[in-house]
Amino acid sequence: MKLIYIAPTLHPVGGLERTLTDKANYLVANGHDVMFLTYAQGENKVFYDLDSRVRQVDVDCSIYVIYNSPFWNRIKRYLQLRRQFRERMTRVLDDFRPDVVVVTIPNTEDFILDIVTVAHAKNVKVIVESHLAFPFHLKNKQLTERILFKLYPPLKAIRQVDLLIALTEQDADNFRRHKVPQVTVVPNPSTYYCDDIGAVEKQEGRIIAVGRLSNQKRYDRLIHAFSLIASKYPAWSVDIFGAGPLENSIQMLIERQGLTGRVRLNKPTQDIIDEYKRSQFFVLSSDYEGFGLVIIEAMACGLPVVSTTCPCGPSEIITDGGNGLLARMDESDLAKKMEWLITHEAERRQMGLCAHETSARYRKELVMPEWEQTYLSVIG
Fold first, then answer.
1. Residue 106: is the preceding peptide bond cis (ω within 30°)?
2. Which distant-in-sequence residues (6+ apart) come within 8 Å of 17 by Cβ?
3. How far apart are CA 166 and CA 162, in angstroms?
4. What would you report as the CA-atom Rg of the chain, rounded to the nearest whole angstrom?
5. Do 216 and 286 form a contact (C-beta atoms < 8 A)?
6. Is the per-residue pLDDT at 60 higher than 70?
7. Nearest CA-CA partner of 295 in 321, 318, 266, 326
8. Using an 8 Å Cβ cutoff, are 39 and 64 in contact?
9. For labelling alongside 211, which of 93, 192, 195, 263 has CA 20 to 30 A away?
10. Cis peptide before 312 (omega within 30 of 0)
11. 191 to each of 24, 81, 282, 303, how far by Cα in Å?
12. pLDDT at 152 over 50
């Protein structure tokens, strides 16, 4: 099979970029020919380790640079970029001759109609992978983007693809309700599974959170929740690992809440496994998720998880009271669930063991063949 993944860039540190590189590495190791076609990579390096056999092409059509321009210039430049993208994508397809093109959403909505049109004109099958809860694909878009999406609705293109792969049943049902005809569910694989979860000594009182410093992750909710209980448990602290546009505002919030030294921001690290292992439990405070890869990563290291009941993913992975705790979408209930794990050491350890068992379902040797067979299914 010859397969092209289309994504804006592989530079960011995130679950989508991690799983894409993992899948590409798996496919080339199993004899498939894989290429990444990006359009906003530029000179940035791929963050995660990528097999040298995976080809990379950047067509240099970054849509992000236009949004600081005056309104009508944005519209003009947008149309020019779409034309350039179609022309450059056509040349790549003519040269590589793939069997299937895989498009990831979010972030490719600007070009998705062009991708589907060009690929189908070349008799290439198109698969869309949804990595974000569907109702939030257009959330917080700028006015220009909303207008353009009205003119070129992404959903119109998605209904034309040969297959849509959702990561959760909840997200799949959302697409089915919007009349997307071919929908299936395949979960994300965990990058690792730790057999030796007790090999690293745990740091007393350490809570961990991992993810991009963006509005979606709602670290303000986590910080406010911890502030409600921090004075009662002075030995406990929170380590957040991530990078993103809200770094400064999150640091300022930590200082305003008087939590300097109790809530710490840490840069992304390739050694995140050991950071998980050193922690007592994991917290996810998001408004929404496409899946929640960090949940199964933490579980794979033997950590119970406290998560909001956000769409889509956490409630399909976490059994409340079994391998973790589910909290309502408010800081008071999140604080309550965090406090319960702080004060119930024996139960916390048992939940960690259950979480480790749960994560086995997402081991790469089990999930990767599902992805491979799903890709192959569209080309017979």
1. yes
2. 7, 10, 11, 46, 47, 48
3. 13
4. 21
5. yes
6. yes
7. 318
8. no
9. 195
10. yes
11. 13, 35, 17, 16
12. no
pLDDT of residue 23: 97
Cβ neighbours for 101, distance < 8 A, ≥ 6 positions apart: 3, 4, 6, 93, 115, 119, 124, 125, 126, 127
* Average per-residue pLDDT for the chain: 91
* 135 — pLDDT class (breaks 50, 70, 90): low
Reply yes or no on whether the pLDDT at 234 is more than 80.
Answer: yes
141 pLDDT band (50/70/90 cuts)? low
pLDDT of residue 286: 96
Residue 380, exposed/middle/buried by CB under 10 A (0-12, 13-18, 19+)? exposed
In a 13 Å sphere around the CA of 86, the CA atoms on its Cβ side amount to 14
* pLDDT at res. 143: 54
Cα angle 137, 180, 18 (rounded to 5 degrees) comes to 45
Greatest CA span in the chain, whole angstroms?
64
Question: pTM for this structure?
Answer: 0.88
Q: Which residue has the tokens 């929908």?
A: 183
